[in-house]
Specification:
The complex is a heterodimer of chains A (188) and B (92).
Chain A (H helix, E strand, L loop, with lengths): L1 H29 L2 H17 L9 H34 L8 H11 L4 H6 L3 H11 L5 H8 L3 H18 L19
Chain B lengths: L2 H25 L3 H26 L3 H32 L1
Classes of the chains: A mainly alpha (188), B mainly alpha (92).
């Protein structure tokens, strides 16, 4: 009983510490709040079912283990989505009208509007993920690097690249020289 | 980089930081949402263990039927044994 209580406390501490970073990780990959929440919940449900494994697990290892579960769930999600996409494509192919070039240009112009969500959604996935984990998950570059298996320096460079690209997309950088190392970590 | 450029870059950083903070606030789950999710996880997790436990522990009716079958099986075996021993005696 005492052991069960201890494991539940350990689970709660893990949840308090990592729920936001895990959500940010999924949001960075999928760009969808709802999907990110579902995947986050599923990750912690798996952790709960295997909470006995948490005993004697060092904190650093816990994060790695937790995001490992998340990575597997993300792979499953992509696989399911790919299957659904194929089915949807087959169903709608005959009904879909050929895109009108003028409409396409208008859509592109709309996409280029000064909208942060759209700009971030257009970032390459690896940049979007590090940006989300930093801004939403409030993780340091070292922590992000540990989870994604990249050196902290690479993460810092990618954060800087993401900011540079965003500034350009949002026309903030017009005529200005963007500094390479402009990124400041939260609390650094 | 000129002083003018540095000033502009710093304004740009501040503007970007503000946009990113607003973006993070829009997409980050609230404390309440996280608490609701935690309760759902624990409820579902506990629910699963209950089902697993129920599957692992067989109901009382099953055990009663098992022992009743075992009992009648043993009785049948015992009576058959006596029939066989009677047959072998009369054959001899």
């Amino acid at each position: 009983m005492e052991q069960g209580r201890g494991l539940a406390d350990r689970f709660n501490a893990l949840y308090d510490r990592h729920a936001r970073p895990v959500h940010a990780y999924f949001f960075g990959h999928t760009g969808d709040d709802e999907v990110a929440s579902d995947l986050m919940q599923e990750t912690f449900l798996r952790v709960w079912r295997h909470r006995a494994d948490l005993e004697d697990m060092p904190e650093e290892r816990q994060r790695y283990w937790l995001f490992g579960i998340g990575r597997n769930l993300l792979t499953d999600y992509y696989r399911r989505r790919a299957v659904r996409q194929i089915v949807t494509d087959c169903e709608t192919e005959s009904l879909e009208a050929r895109p009108d070039p003028a409409t396409e240009r208008a859509r592109e112009a709309r996409d280029e509007a000064l909208d942060v969500d759209a700009a971030i959604a257009r970032l390459p996935e690896d940049l979007r993920v590090v940006l989300a984990m930093s801004a939403l998950g409030e993780m340091t570059s070292g922590e992000i690097g540990q989870v994604l298996g990249r050196p902290a320096g690479t993460v810092r460079y990618q954060l800087s690249q993401a900011r540079h690209a965003l500034a350009e997309m949002l026309h903030l950088a017009e005529g200005a020289t963007v500094r390479g190392g402009a990124w400041q970590e939260v609390g650094a | 980089m000129t002083v003018h450029d540095m000033g502009r870059a710093s304004d740009e950083d501040a503007a970007l930081d503000a946009m990113l903070a607003a973006w993070a606030a829009r997409h980050s789950p609230s404390d309440e949402q996280l608490e609701t999710a935690r309760r759902a996880i624990l409820r579902e997790g506990e629910g699963t263990s209950d089902v697993a436990l129920a599957e692992a522990v067989l109901p009382l009716e099953w055990w009663e039927r098992f022992f009743a079958d075992l009992n009648s099986g043993m009785r049948r075996a015992a009576s058959l044994d006596s029939v066989f021993s009677m047959l072998s005696t009369s054959a001899a």
